[in-house]
Amino acid sequence: MRIAFFNGPVQNGDFTFADKPGKAVGIRVAAALNTLLGEPAVPHLWNTVTLEGDLRHQAELAAGSDRHQHEQDLIRAKYPEGLLPAEGVVTDVDPAVARLAHDMIRDRLETGVLSVEEAVTVVCSSCAHMAGVGSPACKACGSTDLVKKVAPQLTARRPAGAPVLGPDDVHGRRLAHLENIARNVPDQLILSRTRAHGISLAPFGLAGTVLDPRAALHIEVLAAAERHGAERALMLATETAAAHVAAYGLPFRSHGDIRLGYAVHGKVPYGDPLLGRLYEVHRLGEAQRTLFEEWFLPLYALRERGGIHPGKLPALVKFFRRVCLASSGPEAEGRAGEVRRAVRSGDMGWLMDARTVTHLLPAFPAGTPSAGGGEPGPVRRRRP
User: Fold this and answer.
1) By CB neighbour count within 10 A (0-12 exposed, 13-18 middle, 19+ buried), where does 22 fall?
2) For the chain, what is the mean pLDDT?
3) What pLDDT score does 364 carry?
4) Any residues with CB less than 8 A from the CB of 84 and at least 6 apart, and which?
5) pLDDT digit string (tens) for 187-242?
6) How far apart (Å, rounded) are the C-alpha atoms in residues 351 and 340?
């Protein structure tokens, strides 16, 4: 089975990778793992269907301006010097994603997995925005005049006795606590939302609504996997993100022969002030710092799926310094196949074998975007 890793679509908010490198962890992990597996690079995936984006677009641009181009401009600005990765970017409203979404929704309506039925929602009387249950005020306009309304919605019901997130849905060792968190959702999920931007549900009689972005991002990954030729698409996500979207993705985790799962990673403490001091103590140059932050730490986040504690940074920097000085002998080169098998099974134990990592350590060409947009190749380091 051909496996490929994809970043969980990144919300197109007000940041750049330079000021928030943590936003690029999924992109960096996907790039590193696909390279280790010998897979071609995959596009970077973006989430543009957000209420924040709707409000920002209203405030910044004149009426009638092109929202799609606005989102593309914001994405480009995230990358150093505005250079998009060679493999491109995909958003959750791209035509190929929308076509696949409509096909999948139509199929699931026919089979009864999804329904268009009357449902009770909380709606703002001032702007008609669908508010969340229990919200004290409308997040779109701030009004507190919220009322319950019965109207047709796209809905999904959990199959009786079926888990929202099972052991086979998560790559690597089982996360029972994540499975427990993910199942805390209503039996009926409403998949239609009021957004100015998104995959329109008008073809299904729901004019003025779009597919919930938590569902759409799964379809985005499947569309990218189909283009890539992968049979198993693994979406990188933190525990919190996976728990937040799992139920909404339940009807959209497969398409044809493609199956979608989650590869859970922890957060990386890039902003910890200790890092700079450790670099000085261990005399890590700029290239080594780049490799540590953009390759080693993201991969280590797959070992520490609850997050890398800052207290581990001294040991990790010291280990990485040893990696940079270690020689790579024939026995390490012979482990490449073992590493690929480990990656396919979700085992990251090899990452703490200095000689193996030395052999696999990539070289980042000059000018490579900091989000991992290049095509790194292996280097062989010898002890000076």
Assistant:
1) middle
2) 90
3) 56
4) 44, 75, 76, 373
5) 899 999 999 999 999 999 999 999 999 999 999 999 999 999 999 999 999 999 99
6) 12
252-280 pLDDT, tens digit each = 999 999 999 999 999 999 999 999 999 99
The span from the first CA to the last CA of the chain, in angstroms, equals: 41
Q: What phi and psi values does residue 257 have, to the nearest 5 degrees?
A: -90, 5
pLDDT in tens, 88-129: 999 999 999 999 999 999 999 999 999 999 999 999 999 999
pTM: 0.92
pLDDT of residue 62: 57
- Annotate 288-308 with b (16+ C-beta within 10 A) or e (fewer): bbebbbbbbbbbbbbebbeeb
Report CA-CA distances (Å) from 326 to 23, 33, 183.
31, 22, 46
Q: Is the pLDDT of residue 371 over 90?
A: no
One-letter amino acid identity for 298?
P
Q: Are 201 and 192 spatial neighbours (Cβ–Cβ below 8 Å)? A: yes
Return the closest-CA partner of residue 18 out of 376, 371, 373, 366.
Answer: 371
List, as own/partner pairs, every contact residues 348-357 make where C-beta atoms lie below 8 angstroms and the sequence separation is at least 24, other chains included.
348/172, 348/299, 348/300, 348/302, 348/303, 349/303, 351/296, 351/299, 351/300, 351/303, 352/319, 354/319, 354/322, 354/323, 354/326, 355/326, 355/327, 355/328, 355/329, 355/331, 356/332, 357/296, 357/323
Q: Rounded to 5 degrees, what angle do the CA atoms 193, 198, 201 make?
A: 60
- 9 DSSP 8-state letter: P
Residue 357's nearest CA partner among 322, 307, 311, 314 is: 322
